[in-house]
Design brief:
Elements: E1 4-5, E2 8-9, E3 18-20, E4 23-27, E5 34-38, E6 41-47, E7 53-60, E8 68-71, E9 77-78, E10 81-87, E11 94-101, E12 125-127, E13 145-147, E14 170-173, H1 175-179, H2 192-197, H3 199-205, E15 209-212, E16 216-218, E17 242-248, H4 261-274, E18 278-283, H5 300-308, H6 332-348, E19 353-356, H7 375-382, E20 390-393, E21 413-416, H8 418-429, H9 435-442, H10 446-449, E22 457-460, H11 469-472, H12 508-526, E23 531-535, H13 564-567, H14 569-584, E24 598-600, E25 603-604, E26 606-609, E27 624-632, E28 638-646, E29 652-655, E30 663-670, E31 693-696, E32 700-708
Parallel strand pairs: 14-15, 14-23, 15-18, 18-19, 19-20, 20-21, 21-22, 22-23
Antiparallel strand pairs: 1-2, 3-4, 4-10, 5-6, 6-10, 7-8, 7-11, 9-10, 11-13, 12-13, 16-17, 24-25, 26-27, 27-28, 28-32, 29-31, 30-32
Helix pairs in contact: 8-9, 12-14
Organism: Nonomuraea spiralis
Protein name: Glycogen debranching protein GlgX
Keywords: Glycosidase, Hydrolase, Transit peptide
Length: 710
């Protein structure tokens, strides 16, 4: 065909120049990597710098054997990138992979295997695990198949919410576990669609950010054990073993069997945004599902093992993740891969932020040593497309690198503050010497984040990994026998206290104490400076029978029991009011750490007290912390907040600080009081009858607000 039509150059990139396996092909576009639609066909681009040959292998959906295999001509390789455009493909019905042949003399660590068909690391969807828990063909030579997801979703002008970080209340949840229980009453339990039905609950609770445990494609069957107690199959329930970093988990979609998981997840994000709730994804870039030398070959290992993984000089895997391998995040190619992935989720899925599992690994160089200026962390901090995304680091790893307070933040990163968690737990269980550290944590951990501000600290008491809040005060030790590892797995140092009885009990005093302790933890958490995070189910007293590592249980042990919202309605109401109180008072959301400078009415921004006003007790045996914050209220006038926590087994009578300008103390919360008097609706707090002193009950906490009385 002529490239000239009436003197106008024609389009020559829309037509094949050769034929392979019955398909018209031409040299492809090296960038972007992955499979992308182009006029008349699909462009395939894959990186493999050490390969001597690469073939594109094509399948029809559901068929075991490929219908075509197209070797990349040598001239279609530029550098280490193999790119080819294939014309006439039914991109909605095709599944694809790559066959890669390595050099005749492999280097240490090379794991090229032309007998394997490899998934595309950039695949935007994957098939093979389309329905959660459905039996699979264990002899399938290509179990995780790459699919090209359609990009025609109607977002209806949705955009990321850009909620100010100081205004966030984060709610960590598991997509399947949140609605899988029959008590959820949703039409499609355990799915993105099911979660949409629970958005009214989230709004009523008052949280405005959900942190979703992993939703990137993974294989729930990558475990082989059974529950030794019941004989039931154990699953990879949590999903911290990623197969497809660009692909949403099909088994979490009611429409996954139809290949519509991308649209269903996008609809979840859109509906959450419509409700004013931001979406943060828990992402796992520290390791992959390929494991160590004995693990499966899925993609990276067979494409360029020495690029994607940290290897010893002998070619074995460094294991700083504790799961067999360590992703080589600071290699330039892998760094670009992580950046491409996050940009894709931020742009294509409108994600509001990311929490990085075992993020200290992102700080390690290719030999595993911590870097002074880790390029990936810096790149993510300053990337223009990710500018408005919340970046949260779990600032430690399984190799012993603990960086809480020292993670390279670049004035952008926040951290899961493990020291906040530990300080609050120690204080509530009555450990000596814990009062001073709790005080530091309440005001945003200035010892850790003096130059970064309070928003560097994501405060939490519990998370998916460890005891739930109910179990924290019901068990002295872990009870993980059902995991099939003889109770060896899970953390042994939980800083928990069973309040006098291990596990379930009918003792009314023990039950009352456990209820107070849960309220104490939630009140302190939600009135602390920093970004608070609540574990889903803690607000209704969900427990896991003392299992502090329920990663493998897809059942009632891990599922949200919605009947608890009725059974423990008083606790749920307490949390709702605490969340509302936080939203009503800018003082607890201040980006700056308070100091002794004047806050309001002649009072300092923060002051500390004890049984007598102005006389705190920081001694080793102290079990009392009392704090007064003074500053500007939401309406522009002065406000004063008083928080006192008593970890002693006896009540304490506290002298209250004087308030200026005729302000009066009003009672917001008293965890020692019986419901409904344990908490009041913000703005409707009753004035204290005695303005000079207050009694804080044994192992209880109170919160007061000082304002003019009408």
């Amino acid at each position: 065909m002529s490239v000239e039509t009436q003197g106008v150059p024609g389009r020559i990139d829309s037509f094949p120049t050769a034929e392979l396996a019955g398909f018209g092909v031409r040299a492809g576009h090296p960038m972007p990597f992955g499979a992308t639609l182009v006029p008349g066909g699909v462009n395939f681009s894959v990186y493999s710098s050490g390969a001597s040959a690469v073939s594109l292998v094509l399948f029809r959906h559901g068929e075991r054997e490929p219908f075509a295999e197209l070797p990349f001509p040598g001239e279609y390789r530029i550098g280490g990138v193999w790119a080819m455009t294939v014309f006439g493909l039914d991109h909605e019905g095709v599944e694809y992979g790559y066959r890669v042949t390595g050099p005749e003399n492999p280097a240490p660590g090379d794991r090229f295997d032309p007998a394997k068909i490899l998934a595309d690391p950039y695949a935007t969807a994957m098939s093979g695990r389309d329905v959660w828990g459905a039996e699979v063909d264990w002899d399938d030579p290509y179990p995780y198949r790459s699919v090209l997801a359609a990009g025609d979703f109607d977002w209806e002008d949705d955009r990321p919410l850009r909620i100010a970080p100081e205004d966030l209340v984060v709610y960590e949840l598991h997509v399947r576990g949140f609605t899988a229980d029959p008590s959820s009453g949703v039409a499609a339990p355990g799915t993105y669609a099911g979660l949409i039905e629970k958005i009214p609950y989230l709004k009523e609770l008052g949280v405005n950010c959900v942190e979703l445990m992993p939703v990137f494609e993974f294989d729930e069957f990558d475990m082989s054990r059974v529950n030794p107690v019941t004989g039931e199959r154990l699953y990879n329930f949590w999903g911290y073993s990623t197969l497809g970093f660009f692909a949403p988990k099909a088994g979490y979609a009611a429409t996954g069997r139809y290949g519509m998981q991308a649209d269903e997840f996008k609809n979840l994000v859109k509906e959450l945004h419509r409700a004013g709730i931001a979406v943060v994804l828990d992402v796992v870039f520290n390791h992959t599902a390929e494991g160590n030398e004995n693990g499966p070959t899925i993609h990276f290992r067979g494409l360029d093992n020495g690029t994607y993984y940290m290897l010893t000089p002998e070619g074995y895997y460094y294991n700083f993740s504790g799961t067999g391998n360590t992703f080589n995040c600071n290699h330039p190619v892998v760094r670009d891969y992580v950046l491409d992935c996050l940009r894709y989720w931020a742009g294509e899925y409108h994600i509001d932020g990311f929490r990085f599992d075992l993020a200290a690994i992102l700080d390690r160089g290719q030999d595993g040593a911590p870097l002074a200026n880790p390029p990936l962390i810096e790149t993510l901090a300053h990337d223009p497309l990710l500018r408005d995304c919340l970046l949260i680091a779990e600032a430690w790893d399984a190799g012993g690198l603990y960086q809480v307070g020292s993670f390279p933040g670049y004035q952008r990163w926040s951290e899961w503050n493990g020291r906040y968690r530990d300080a609050l737990r120690r204080f509530l269980k009555g450990d000596p010497g814990s009062a001073g550290e709790l005080a530091t944590r309440l005001v945003g951990s200035p010892d850790l984040y003096a130059s970064r501000g309070t928003l560097a600290s994501v405060n939490f008491v519990t998370c998916h990994d460890g005891f739930t809040l109910a179990d924290l005060f019901a068990y002295d030790g872990k009870h993980n026998e059902a995991n099939g590892e003889d109770n060896r797995d899970g953390n042994d140092d939980n800083l928990s206290w069973n309040c006098g009885a291990e596990g379930p009990t009918d003792d009314p005093e023990v039950l009352a104490l456990r209820g107070r302790q849960a309220r104490n933890a939630l009140l302190l958490l939600l009135l602390s400076q920093g970004i608070p995070m609540i574990l889903a189910g803690d607000e209704v007293g969900r427990g896991q029978q003392g299992n502090n590592n329920a990663y493998c249980h897809d059942g009632p042990l891990s599922w949200f029991d919605w009947s608890l919202a009725g059974q423990n309605g008083d606790l749920l109401r307490f949390v709702r009011e605490c969340v509302a109180f936080r939203a009503a008072h800018p003082l607890v959301r201040d980006r700056r750490h308070p100091c002794g400078d004047e806050g309001a009415g002649g009072l300092p921004q923060v002051s500390w007290h004890g049984e007598r006003a102005g006389e705190p007790d920081w001694s080793e045996g102290s079990a009392l912390v009392a704090m007064l914050r003074s500053g500007t209220a939401a309406g522009g006038g002065p406000e004063h907040l008083y928080l006192a926590a008593n970890a002693h087994w006896e009540a304490r009578e506290l002298e209250l600080p004087d308030l200026p300008d005729g302000a009066v103390w009003h009672l917001f919360a008293d965890t020692g009081a019986a419901a409904p008097d344990d908490v009041h609706t913000p703005g409707q707090e009753p004035p204290l009858a005695d303005q000079r002193r207050i009694v804080v009950g044994p192992r209880a906490a109170v919160a007061l607000v000082g304002r003019a009385h009408p």
